[in-house]
Design goal:
CATH topology: TIM Barrel
Radius of gyration: 19 Å
Oligomer: single chain
CATH architecture: Alpha-Beta Barrel
Distance between the termini: 27 Å
Largest sheet: 7 strands, parallel
Strand content: 5-15%
Strand order of the largest sheet: 1-4-5-6-7-8-9
Order of helices and strands: HHHHEHEEHEHHHEHEHEHEHEH
Shape: globular
Number of strands: 9
Helix content: 40-55%
Structural class: alpha/beta
Amino acid sequence: MTSIERVRRVIRGEAVDHLPAQPMAMMFSSRHAGIPFIDYTKDGRKMAEAQLKLVADFGLDCLLTCSDPAREVIDIAGEGSVDWFTDQGPAINEDRAALADKLRLRTFQVPDPLGGGRMHDRVKSIEQMRRAAGPGMSIVGWIEGPLALAAELRGLNAIMLDFGDDPQFAHDLLAFCADVAIAYAPAQIAAGADTIGMSDAAAGLIGPTLYEKFLWPQQQRVLAAIRQRHPDVLLRQHMCGRIDRLYPKMAELPIDIYEIDFPANLTLARSLLGPTRVLAGNVSTITDLFEGTPEQVYAACRRCHEICGRYYIVGAGCEISPLTPPENLRAMLAYARDHRPEDCGPR
Protein backbone atom coordinates (compact mmCIF):
# COMPACT_ATOMS: atom_id res chain seq x y z
CA MET A 1 0.00 0.00 0.00
CA THR A 2 1.41 3.41 -0.93
CA SER A 3 1.78 6.21 1.59
CA ILE A 4 -0.80 8.37 -0.19
CA GLU A 5 -3.35 5.56 -0.19
CA ARG A 6 -2.61 4.77 3.46
CA VAL A 7 -3.25 8.35 4.57
CA ARG A 8 -6.38 8.75 2.45
CA ARG A 9 -7.83 5.49 3.76
CA VAL A 10 -7.28 6.60 7.37
CA ILE A 11 -9.09 9.85 6.62
CA ARG A 12 -12.02 7.90 5.17
CA GLY A 13 -12.04 5.42 8.05
CA GLU A 14 -11.17 2.50 5.79
CA ALA A 15 -8.92 -0.50 6.46
CA VAL A 16 -5.16 -0.07 6.01
CA ASP A 17 -2.15 -2.30 6.57
CA HIS A 18 -0.82 -0.11 9.37
CA LEU A 19 -0.94 3.42 10.75
CA PRO A 20 0.75 6.16 8.70
CA ALA A 21 3.70 7.95 10.28
CA GLN A 22 4.34 11.58 9.32
CA PRO A 23 6.57 13.25 11.94
CA MET A 24 7.80 16.74 11.10
CA ALA A 25 11.54 16.24 10.48
CA MET A 26 13.50 19.08 8.90
CA MET A 27 16.75 19.72 10.77
CA PHE A 28 16.88 16.04 11.69
CA SER A 29 16.63 15.19 7.99
CA SER A 30 19.40 17.63 7.12
CA ARG A 31 21.70 16.31 9.84
CA HIS A 32 21.00 12.69 8.90
CA ALA A 33 21.99 13.45 5.30
CA GLY A 34 25.13 15.34 6.35
CA ILE A 35 23.88 18.58 4.80
CA PRO A 36 24.29 21.91 6.66
CA PHE A 37 20.84 23.27 7.34
CA ILE A 38 21.62 26.56 5.63
CA ASP A 39 22.13 24.56 2.40
CA TYR A 40 18.96 22.56 3.05
CA THR A 41 16.94 25.78 3.25
CA LYS A 42 18.64 27.60 0.36
CA ASP A 43 18.76 24.77 -2.18
CA GLY A 44 15.63 22.76 -2.90
CA ARG A 45 17.72 20.02 -4.48
CA LYS A 46 19.45 19.40 -1.18
CA MET A 47 16.13 19.47 0.69
CA ALA A 48 14.80 16.83 -1.71
CA GLU A 49 17.96 14.76 -1.32
CA ALA A 50 17.75 14.84 2.48
CA GLN A 51 14.03 14.07 2.62
CA LEU A 52 14.36 11.19 0.18
CA LYS A 53 17.20 9.71 2.25
CA LEU A 54 15.18 10.08 5.44
CA VAL A 55 12.22 8.21 3.95
CA ALA A 56 14.48 5.51 2.51
CA ASP A 57 16.35 4.96 5.79
CA PHE A 58 13.48 5.30 8.29
CA GLY A 59 10.31 4.54 6.34
CA LEU A 60 8.27 7.70 6.90
CA ASP A 61 4.99 8.13 5.04
CA CYS A 62 5.69 11.55 3.60
CA LEU A 63 8.27 13.87 2.13
CA LEU A 64 7.95 17.19 3.94
CA THR A 65 8.77 20.56 2.34
CA CYS A 66 8.39 22.78 5.41
CA SER A 67 11.79 24.35 6.10
CA ASP A 68 11.83 27.88 7.51
CA PRO A 69 9.79 31.06 8.05
CA ALA A 70 11.53 33.23 5.47
CA ARG A 71 10.52 31.93 2.03
CA GLU A 72 7.48 34.13 1.49
CA VAL A 73 8.99 37.00 3.48
CA ILE A 74 12.06 37.28 1.25
CA ASP A 75 10.05 37.11 -1.97
CA ILE A 76 7.71 39.81 -0.67
CA ALA A 77 10.10 42.20 1.04
CA GLY A 78 13.71 41.10 0.49
CA GLU A 79 16.23 39.79 2.99
CA GLY A 80 16.53 42.92 5.14
CA SER A 81 14.68 41.41 8.10
CA VAL A 82 16.28 37.96 7.91
CA ASP A 83 19.29 36.63 9.82
CA TRP A 84 21.05 33.57 8.39
CA PHE A 85 22.93 30.93 10.39
CA THR A 86 25.27 28.17 9.26
CA ASP A 87 23.46 25.18 10.72
CA GLN A 88 20.16 26.63 11.79
CA GLY A 89 17.16 27.96 9.92
CA PRO A 90 16.92 31.63 8.93
CA ALA A 91 15.21 33.74 11.56
CA ILE A 92 13.21 36.96 11.44
CA ASN A 93 14.89 39.84 13.26
CA GLU A 94 12.03 41.88 14.69
CA ASP A 95 14.28 44.91 15.17
CA ARG A 96 14.43 45.07 11.36
CA ALA A 97 10.90 43.88 10.62
CA ALA A 98 9.85 44.38 7.03
CA LEU A 99 6.69 46.16 8.18
CA ALA A 100 8.19 48.26 10.96
CA ASP A 101 6.56 51.04 8.92
CA LYS A 102 2.97 49.92 8.46
CA LEU A 103 2.56 52.11 5.39
CA ARG A 104 4.89 49.83 3.49
CA LEU A 105 2.08 47.27 3.29
CA ARG A 106 0.53 49.41 0.52
CA THR A 107 3.55 48.72 -1.68
CA PHE A 108 3.56 44.93 -1.21
CA GLN A 109 2.46 42.66 -4.03
CA VAL A 110 1.73 38.94 -3.99
CA PRO A 111 4.91 37.30 -5.33
CA ASP A 112 4.94 35.03 -8.35
CA PRO A 113 5.58 31.57 -6.85
CA LEU A 114 7.32 30.62 -10.10
CA GLY A 115 9.35 33.80 -10.29
CA GLY A 116 12.73 32.33 -9.41
CA GLY A 117 12.75 33.25 -5.72
CA ARG A 118 12.68 31.18 -2.54
CA MET A 119 9.04 30.25 -3.03
CA HIS A 120 9.96 28.85 -6.44
CA ASP A 121 12.82 26.90 -4.85
CA ARG A 122 10.32 24.90 -2.80
CA VAL A 123 8.25 24.24 -5.94
CA LYS A 124 11.34 22.89 -7.71
CA SER A 125 12.13 20.72 -4.69
CA ILE A 126 8.64 19.19 -4.89
CA GLU A 127 9.17 18.47 -8.59
CA GLN A 128 12.43 16.68 -7.79
CA MET A 129 10.83 14.71 -4.96
CA ARG A 130 7.96 13.58 -7.17
CA ARG A 131 10.29 12.46 -9.96
CA ALA A 132 12.44 10.47 -7.56
CA ALA A 133 9.74 9.03 -5.29
CA GLY A 134 7.14 8.21 -7.90
CA PRO A 135 3.37 8.67 -7.73
CA GLY A 136 2.69 6.74 -4.51
CA MET A 137 4.70 8.73 -1.97
CA SER A 138 2.87 11.49 -0.12
CA ILE A 139 4.51 14.90 -0.59
CA VAL A 140 3.45 17.60 1.87
CA GLY A 141 3.73 21.09 0.43
CA TRP A 142 3.80 24.02 2.83
CA ILE A 143 2.39 27.53 3.11
CA GLU A 144 2.69 30.08 5.87
CA GLY A 145 -0.69 30.68 7.48
CA PRO A 146 -2.05 34.25 7.58
CA LEU A 147 -0.95 34.97 11.15
CA ALA A 148 2.41 33.22 10.80
CA LEU A 149 3.30 35.33 7.76
CA ALA A 150 1.88 38.48 9.34
CA ALA A 151 4.10 37.95 12.40
CA GLU A 152 7.12 37.34 10.18
CA LEU A 153 6.53 40.56 8.23
CA ARG A 154 5.41 42.81 11.06
CA GLY A 155 7.10 41.21 14.08
CA LEU A 156 5.32 38.99 16.58
CA ASN A 157 5.03 41.57 19.35
CA ALA A 158 3.89 44.28 16.96
CA ILE A 159 1.09 42.28 15.33
CA MET A 160 -0.21 41.28 18.76
CA LEU A 161 -0.45 44.96 19.69
CA ASP A 162 -2.02 45.79 16.32
CA PHE A 163 -5.06 43.67 17.15
CA GLY A 164 -5.99 46.28 19.75
CA ASP A 165 -4.24 49.43 18.52
CA ASP A 166 -4.92 49.26 14.80
CA PRO A 167 -7.44 46.52 14.02
CA GLN A 168 -8.00 47.66 10.43
CA PHE A 169 -4.30 47.32 9.67
CA ALA A 170 -4.32 43.86 11.26
CA HIS A 171 -7.26 42.84 9.07
CA ASP A 172 -5.55 44.23 5.96
CA LEU A 173 -2.25 42.50 6.72
CA LEU A 174 -3.88 39.13 7.41
CA ALA A 175 -5.89 39.42 4.19
CA PHE A 176 -2.72 40.12 2.20
CA CYS A 177 -0.99 37.15 3.81
CA ALA A 178 -3.95 34.96 2.93
CA ASP A 179 -3.67 36.14 -0.67
CA VAL A 180 -0.04 35.01 -0.72
CA ALA A 181 -1.00 31.55 0.55
CA ILE A 182 -3.82 31.25 -2.01
CA ALA A 183 -1.35 32.04 -4.80
CA TYR A 184 1.39 29.73 -3.49
CA ALA A 185 -0.51 26.48 -2.91
CA PRO A 186 -1.55 25.78 -6.54
CA ALA A 187 2.05 26.00 -7.76
CA GLN A 188 3.10 23.36 -5.23
CA ILE A 189 0.16 21.14 -6.15
CA ALA A 190 1.00 21.40 -9.85
CA ALA A 191 4.57 20.39 -9.00
CA GLY A 192 3.38 17.19 -7.31
CA ALA A 193 2.25 17.92 -3.75
CA ASP A 194 -0.76 15.82 -2.74
CA THR A 195 -1.08 17.55 0.65
CA ILE A 196 -0.78 21.21 1.62
CA GLY A 197 0.28 21.94 5.17
CA MET A 198 -0.49 25.37 6.62
CA SER A 199 1.31 26.60 9.71
CA ASP A 200 0.01 29.39 11.95
CA ALA A 201 2.56 29.07 14.69
CA ALA A 202 1.53 32.24 16.56
CA ALA A 203 -2.12 31.22 16.86
CA GLY A 204 -1.44 29.63 20.23
CA LEU A 205 -0.77 33.12 21.61
CA ILE A 206 -4.24 34.49 20.91
CA GLY A 207 -7.53 33.60 22.52
CA PRO A 208 -10.79 32.50 20.91
CA THR A 209 -12.18 36.03 20.52
CA LEU A 210 -9.24 37.33 18.49
CA TYR A 211 -9.01 34.03 16.62
CA GLU A 212 -12.62 34.19 15.49
CA LYS A 213 -12.52 37.90 14.65
CA PHE A 214 -9.18 38.16 12.86
CA LEU A 215 -7.55 34.86 11.95
CA TRP A 216 -10.24 32.24 11.40
CA PRO A 217 -11.92 34.07 8.46
CA GLN A 218 -8.59 34.26 6.59
CA GLN A 219 -7.70 30.64 7.33
CA GLN A 220 -11.12 29.65 6.04
CA ARG A 221 -10.62 31.73 2.90
CA VAL A 222 -7.25 30.09 2.15
CA LEU A 223 -8.46 26.55 2.75
CA ALA A 224 -11.72 27.05 0.85
CA ALA A 225 -9.85 28.46 -2.15
CA ILE A 226 -7.50 25.46 -2.26
CA ARG A 227 -10.36 22.99 -1.78
CA GLN A 228 -12.43 24.61 -4.53
CA ARG A 229 -9.63 24.43 -7.10
CA HIS A 230 -8.12 21.14 -5.95
CA PRO A 231 -10.80 19.02 -4.26
CA ASP A 232 -8.59 15.92 -4.07
CA VAL A 233 -5.67 17.60 -2.28
CA LEU A 234 -5.41 16.94 1.45
CA LEU A 235 -5.30 19.90 3.84
CA ARG A 236 -3.19 19.73 6.98
CA GLN A 237 -3.03 22.38 9.72
CA HIS A 238 -0.31 22.97 12.28
CA MET A 239 -0.61 25.54 15.06
CA CYS A 240 2.08 25.45 17.73
CA GLY A 241 1.50 25.40 21.44
CA ARG A 242 -1.57 25.01 23.62
CA ILE A 243 -4.49 25.83 21.32
CA ASP A 244 -7.19 24.14 23.39
CA ARG A 245 -9.49 27.19 23.47
CA LEU A 246 -9.44 27.44 19.68
CA TYR A 247 -10.75 23.92 18.98
CA PRO A 248 -14.47 24.79 18.68
CA LYS A 249 -13.86 27.26 15.86
CA MET A 250 -11.05 25.20 14.32
CA ALA A 251 -13.55 22.37 13.94
CA GLU A 252 -15.38 24.44 11.30
CA LEU A 253 -12.36 24.56 8.98
CA PRO A 254 -12.20 22.16 6.01
CA ILE A 255 -9.16 20.38 7.42
CA ASP A 256 -8.28 16.74 6.71
CA ILE A 257 -5.41 16.42 9.22
CA TYR A 258 -5.04 18.43 12.42
CA GLU A 259 -1.45 18.24 13.69
CA ILE A 260 -1.66 18.69 17.47
CA ASP A 261 1.39 20.01 19.33
CA PHE A 262 2.51 18.22 22.49
CA PRO A 263 1.54 20.98 24.99
CA ALA A 264 -2.06 20.78 23.73
CA ASN A 265 -4.75 18.62 25.32
CA LEU A 266 -5.23 15.72 22.91
CA THR A 267 -8.28 14.34 24.72
CA LEU A 268 -9.98 17.72 24.43
CA ALA A 269 -8.96 17.96 20.77
CA ARG A 270 -10.62 14.63 20.05
CA SER A 271 -13.75 15.71 21.91
CA LEU A 272 -14.13 19.14 20.31
CA LEU A 273 -12.81 18.52 16.80
CA GLY A 274 -15.08 15.52 16.35
CA PRO A 275 -14.80 11.73 16.50
CA THR A 276 -13.94 11.20 12.83
CA ARG A 277 -11.48 14.03 12.21
CA VAL A 278 -7.90 12.83 11.72
CA LEU A 279 -5.48 13.99 14.41
CA ALA A 280 -1.72 13.70 14.09
CA GLY A 281 1.23 14.14 16.41
CA ASN A 282 1.15 15.13 20.10
CA VAL A 283 4.16 12.95 21.00
CA SER A 284 6.55 15.26 22.86
CA THR A 285 9.59 16.32 20.88
CA ILE A 286 11.42 16.96 24.17
CA THR A 287 10.57 14.54 26.98
CA ASP A 288 9.77 11.62 24.67
CA LEU A 289 11.77 11.89 21.45
CA PHE A 290 14.79 13.91 22.58
CA GLU A 291 15.20 12.89 26.23
CA GLY A 292 13.33 9.59 26.34
CA THR A 293 14.04 6.00 25.45
CA PRO A 294 12.68 3.97 22.53
CA GLU A 295 10.32 2.25 24.96
CA GLN A 296 9.06 5.63 26.17
CA VAL A 297 8.48 6.84 22.60
CA TYR A 298 6.61 3.65 21.74
CA ALA A 299 4.41 4.08 24.82
CA ALA A 300 3.76 7.76 23.97
CA CYS A 301 2.58 6.75 20.50
CA ARG A 302 0.28 4.16 22.08
CA ARG A 303 -1.18 6.80 24.42
CA CYS A 304 -1.95 9.13 21.52
CA HIS A 305 -3.43 6.33 19.45
CA GLU A 306 -5.70 5.22 22.29
CA ILE A 307 -6.94 8.78 22.81
CA CYS A 308 -7.52 9.46 19.13
CA GLY A 309 -8.85 6.09 18.07
CA ARG A 310 -8.65 4.90 14.48
CA TYR A 311 -8.46 8.40 13.00
CA TYR A 312 -4.83 9.00 13.93
CA ILE A 313 -1.52 9.60 12.16
CA VAL A 314 1.60 8.87 14.20
CA GLY A 315 3.86 11.87 14.62
CA ALA A 316 5.46 14.39 16.93
CA GLY A 317 3.82 17.51 18.29
CA CYS A 318 6.15 19.77 16.30
CA GLU A 319 9.49 19.55 14.54
CA ILE A 320 11.74 16.91 16.05
CA SER A 321 15.15 18.01 17.29
CA PRO A 322 18.14 17.32 15.03
CA LEU A 323 19.74 15.74 18.12
CA THR A 324 16.93 13.22 18.57
CA PRO A 325 18.48 9.75 18.97
CA PRO A 326 17.79 7.85 15.73
CA GLU A 327 16.61 4.83 17.71
CA ASN A 328 13.83 6.98 19.19
CA LEU A 329 12.56 7.97 15.76
CA ARG A 330 12.77 4.31 14.74
CA ALA A 331 10.62 3.43 17.77
CA MET A 332 7.97 5.88 16.56
CA LEU A 333 8.03 4.30 13.11
CA ALA A 334 7.93 0.84 14.69
CA TYR A 335 4.73 1.71 16.54
CA ALA A 336 3.11 2.78 13.28
CA ARG A 337 4.22 -0.41 11.50
CA ASP A 338 3.04 -2.62 14.37
CA HIS A 339 -0.50 -1.21 14.57
CA ARG A 340 -3.52 -0.77 12.38
CA PRO A 341 -5.94 2.09 13.09
CA GLU A 342 -8.38 -0.19 14.92
CA ASP A 343 -5.65 -1.53 17.26
CA CYS A 344 -6.36 1.13 19.86
CA GLY A 345 -8.51 -0.64 22.45
CA PRO A 346 -7.54 -1.56 26.00
CA ARG A 347 -4.33 -3.55 26.29
